[in-house]
Design brief:
With about 500 residues, this protein is of the alpha/beta class. It has two domains: about 120 residues, Immunoglobulins (Immunoglobulin-like); about 300 residues, Ribonucleoside hydrolase-like (Inosine-uridine Nucleoside N-ribohydrolase, Chain A, Alpha-Beta Complex), CATH 3.90.245. The protein is about 25% helix and about 20% strand. The strands form seven sheets. Strands 3-2-1-4-5-6 form a six-stranded parallel β-sheet, sandwiched between helices. Strands 15-20-19-17 form a four-stranded mixed β-sheet. Helix 2 packs parallel to helix 3. It is globular and about 70 Å long. The N terminus is likely disordered.
Length: about 500
């Protein structure tokens, strides 16, 4: 009973405390996209979504490149066509959020690499307007990292790095390398492994090799046991993205192989309270990744495929990684199910463990968010839904000792549309160093906005990540997050 009394006392104290402002608005992430657009329709799909979130980024460039699937063709004209469609909806998007750049601004940043495959485009005399643009962007007097989501082959980036190495002092080059944050959708040519080997200081996220079935990013698309597969179905895409959502939605092509295989390269950059781009091991909409040197994939015969030009080729194969990279990690997850009576959501009894789980566990939430953005293109503010605003009444980093009682308080969270809110707190064990299960206080289901927790006994300093999901009851239901990192020290 003493434990229960202490819990209720702490709840009363926490509810009585004034709100503490702990989060400041962060500067936008700088993003420069490399895309082998037209190699598969999924690049165009991803670009539609990317433009729906254009207000969240400082877009530094959109560069048309090649890949193993499109070795001798570039298609910047498709980028321009999609920007023309974006131009027609951008004024309406501004009714919902500030910061959407004009299409004219973005068109000035469209470039192209060389129409050659992989390392054929790297070396003396292989500069392109794309590789030069990358160098100019890195050289800007801007200390923010430059994120380069690579949807195809990165030989344009490889050439930029090659030239920097040849023309800059070691100190100058090092400063430019340290600005880079690269995420490649597997290896779609041989220049990605070359970059990782020759530029060990470059921050690099990848599921290495060409064996896509093992890649984290696959979790965005296709049928995944345990995932909400309805929200990636053709019917869902037709209803929520393609039809009745303006000129840009009409440009979203039907699925050929898989929906938006390139989107995970930027999903983790969207500011939603969960994503932390500088910490891929924290997990987020783009998946979760850990820093280590992976073993080579088992060699499997590469199935020949035909490129857009009819050339019969095989995809890149795995090599031996020479240094740690941010790569595949596993989560174990039990999906939440809707309940008609009692608690509105309950955990499924089934558990799923894989690298793809780190991404598909958020699928319903990021798909609903995309659907809302598409509504913004055609509806006025009152006719569309907007994400809730979670609020913490304490710092987002708490320092405690073993056995201490601490609180998690989201009282004061709000919604700009006045929608009712649902709360869900949970521990994310894979994101922290402490792997034990933390229980909330008795009689406090994790569907409330306030909780008390007892810090576990530890022998060495540990971190525990708690995630708050705040979901509104609008249509589509939208979710935003807060992450609380608890640092536990021995008593």
């Amino acid at each position: 009973m003493k434990w229960l009394l202490n819990s209720f006392v702490l709840i009363w104290v926490l509810m009585s405390l004034p709100a503490v402002l702990v989060a400041q608005s962060s500067p936008k992430v700088r993003v420069l996209v490399l895309t082998d657009i037209e190699a598969d329709v999924d690049d165009a799909q991803s670009l539609v979504r990317f433009l729906a979130y254009a207000n969240e980024f400082d877009i530094e460039g959109l560069i048309a490149t090649t890949s193993t699937h499109q070795r001798h063709r570039l298609a910047p004209e498709t980028i321009h066509r999609l920007l023309d469609a974006y131009n027609k909806v951008q004024p309406n998007l501004l009714k919902h959020a500030k910061g959407y750049p004009t299409a004219a601004e973005l068109k000035k940043k469209v470039r192209k690499g060389l129409a050659v495959y992989g390392m054929e485009g790297v070396g003396e005399g292989k500069d392109s307007e794309g590789s030069e643009w990358i160098i100019q962007t890195l050289e800007k007097p801007d200390n923010r990292p430059l994120w380069v989501p690579v949807w195809g082959g990165p030989n344009c980036l490889a050439q930029a790095l090659w030239k920097i190495q040849k023309t800059k002092s070691a100190a100058q080059a090092s400063q430019l390398y340290k600005k880079l944050r690269v995420y490649t959708i597997s290896d779609q040519d041989d220049s990605g492994p070359w970059i990782r080997k020759n530029f060990p200081d470059v921050f690099f996220i990848v599921s290495p090799g060409g064996n896509y079935r093992n890649a984290t990013w696959i979790g965005i698309t296709g049928f995944m046991p345990g995932a909400n597969n309805e929200v990636t179905s053709n019917d869902w895409l037709a209803q929520h993205i393609q039809q009745g959502h303006g000129p840009l939605g009409a440009e979203y092509p039907d699925v050929a192989y898989g929906m938006e295989g390139d989107t995970p390269a930027f999903l983790g950059l969207i500011p939603n309270g969960l994503n932390d781009p500088e910490h891929p091991n924290f997990g987020g909409w783009g998946g979760r990744y850990e820093l280590y040197t992976p073993k080579p994939e088992p060699q499997q015969p590469s199935r020949p495929m035909r490129t857009q030009g009819g050339e019969l080729v095989t995809g890149p194969v795995s090599g031996t990684e020479t240094r740690p990279i941010w790569t595949n990690a596993e989560d174990t997850y039990s999906p939440m199910k809707s309940s008609r009576w009692g608690r509105p959501v309950v955990a499924d009894t089934a558990k799923y463990t894989s690298t793809q789980v780190t991404l598909w566990r958020w699928r319903e939430e990021f798909q609903n968010d995309f659907a809302a953005r598409m509504d913004w293109m055609v509806k006025d503010y009152k006719g569309a839904n907007h994400p809730p605003v979670p609020k913490l009444n304490h710092p987002d980093v708490l320092k405690v000792k073993s056995g201490d009682i601490f609180g998690l308080n989201a009282d004061g969270s709000s919604d700009p549309d006045g929608d009712a809110l649902s709360y869900y707190w949970f521990q994310y064990p894979e994101a922290g160093t402490y792997k034990g299960v933390i229980r909330f206080a008795p009689f406090q289901p994790n569907l409330a906005n306030l909780h008390t927790v007892v810090a576990p006994e530890v022998d060495s300093p540990q971190t525990i990540h708690f995630i708050l999901k705040v979901t509104d009851k609008g249509t589509p239901a939208l979710t935003r997050y807060k992450r609380v990192i608890v640092q536990v020290s021995p008593k």
